[in-house]
Amino acid sequence: MKAVRYLALSLAAVLFLIPFYLVLRNGLATEQEITAPAWTFWPSEIHWENFAALFSNPAVPMVRSMVNSLVVAVLQTAGQLLLCGLAGYGLARIPYRYSNFVLYLVIATLMIPAAVTFVPTFVVVSTLGWVSDLRGLVIPGLFSGFTTFLFRQYFLNFPRELEEAARIDGLGHWGTYWRVVVPNSKGFFAALGVIAFVTSWNQFLWPLVIAQDQDSWTVQVALSTFLTSQSIDVTQLFLAAAVSITPLVVVFVALQRFLVRGVTETGIKD
């Protein structure tokens, strides 16, 4: 039975890694090898110079775009963990007459299609002069109703005994949150942090509209420039895709143990 389980996991791992293999294989090959009718497992000659061509391409500021995406993703992740965490804790633990009404409003935002709020948000950002500015990319994504709802549901199940002990020591809601709740919820914070980081990194439509200047492009906008109605730079498109997913792989590998643990995190340490 154990052999069957390992076999199934191995097959799943291979299927999961196939897209990464294809992206890297095509990025290090020539366009002729990519489009050749006869498939080869690996390029006959690895073209490392494709990296130099990618990062020296004056039409696509790849390094700048990667830095912009990293800044946006880090700031939005930190903002969501801070703001949504506080909001979720307040909705779960602080008695308030209209707390349920506020919760329903937060949930209602999840039912509104993004296309409905896209134009009003752009008008606000444009009025503030944040077009082609990192503020226009970061600030609209600092709060998430979905993340707030997840935090609220998690804090409802957080052991009250720990909070009551903190209250006996003289801590209020603020001190209890930062000194007791957050340190005992690192797994859940890390899990939501990974989700928020990946979501922010993969954003395309909003950065495409806001980042009208090359200096404010994110990596997803930079990738789209390799694919136009006139031509497709296949090699650089694949290589740029391989480069762009590197931060996501690093974040996932570093925090993967929290993804499963964060779902069942109770706040009680062994």
Automatic annotation (TrEMBL):
Gene3D superfamilies: MetI-like. Pfam families: BPD_transp_1 (PF00528). The chain crosses the membrane at residues 66-89, 101-125, 137-155, 237-255. It is a multi-pass membrane protein. This is Carbohydrate ABC transporter permease. Keywords: Cell membrane, Membrane, Transmembrane, Transmembrane helix, Transport. The keyword Membrane applies. Belongs to the binding-protein-dependent transport system permease family. The lineage of its organism: Bacteria, Bacillati, Actinomycetota, Actinomycetes, Pseudonocardiales. It is found in: Cell membrane. It comes from the Bacteria. SUPFAM superfamilies: MetI-like. Residues 66-256 form the ABC transmembrane type-1 domain. Its main location: membrane.
